[in-house]
Amino acid sequence: MEVIMFSGSIVALPTPFKEDFTLDYDAYGRLINFQLRNGTDGFVPCGCTGEAATLSHEEQKACIRFVIERAEGKPVIAGAGSNNTREAIMLTKYAKEVSADAVLSITPYYNKPTAVGQIAHFTAIAKAADIPIMLYDVPGRTVTSLLPETIAELAKLDNIVALKDASGSLDHAAEVIQRCGWKFSVLSGDDSLTLPMMAIGARGVVSVAANIVPEKLVKLCNLIEAEKLAEARGIHCGLMPLFKALFLETNPMPVKAALARLGLIKNVLRLPLVPMLPDKEKLLFAVMDELGIKAI
After folding, report:
1. Domain ranges in the chain?
2. Structure pTM?
3. Nearest-angstrom CA–CA distance, 188 and 6
4. Dihedral (CA of 61, 63, 68, 74) sign
5. Which superfamily is assigned to 8-226 in CATH?
């Protein structure tokens, strides 16, 4: 299997809803077009930012298909993870069927599998569908973490080719990079760690902030890749207030508020998520104003 190198600024798309909580495809199209105009390197639909946990299987499939059809050849890494291995296999097979470039597969949550169980879970997925798999380590949501030695064992499988690392630990990322080698792509799962993680060998970011300032995330990744670190630091430091503001409350609550303010979507989330509290939203909007982020 050809090794796929994922790199640059890959946007984690939210899923837009209408006021009646049904899918808003017009808004979804606007989000994708906004990203394409600004040079985003790839798309991740139906991840945590996409509220996959409250999408039905048919809705999730429809979102994946919609993004693939409109991505204009940009890589699409379809959210296809689950804490139910059979469900993850079903979604992964579907992503392969509709020609996704890869899938994003989260560490099983709630069940709390051991490392042996994690290896069995991802091995079953990898053997069920011949499609590149990006592992997703986000212990803040899953409780359990993927240890570097577990990732290195999984990376021996031909189609497990990348990691979205939202562990929050540079040591963790560095050890994965050291153990897995250059053929395995590590991407930051935290906007605020993009610069330091790329400095130690990560290839880019799966970004929430790219929904709001896509051109700046693309430029940041390009500058780091070109080893123009002084210029990259300027962008990184300038965006830090936004990186932090987008996590004042649970993602994707802040990014949906920001996108609604830009006129791209409605600020609608499915329960148990709700719109930001007014005081937190005020802080977010103040950061946007300070950075000159205005309606599209």
Report:
1. 8-226
2. 0.96
3. 11
4. negative
5. Aldolase class I (3.20.20.70)
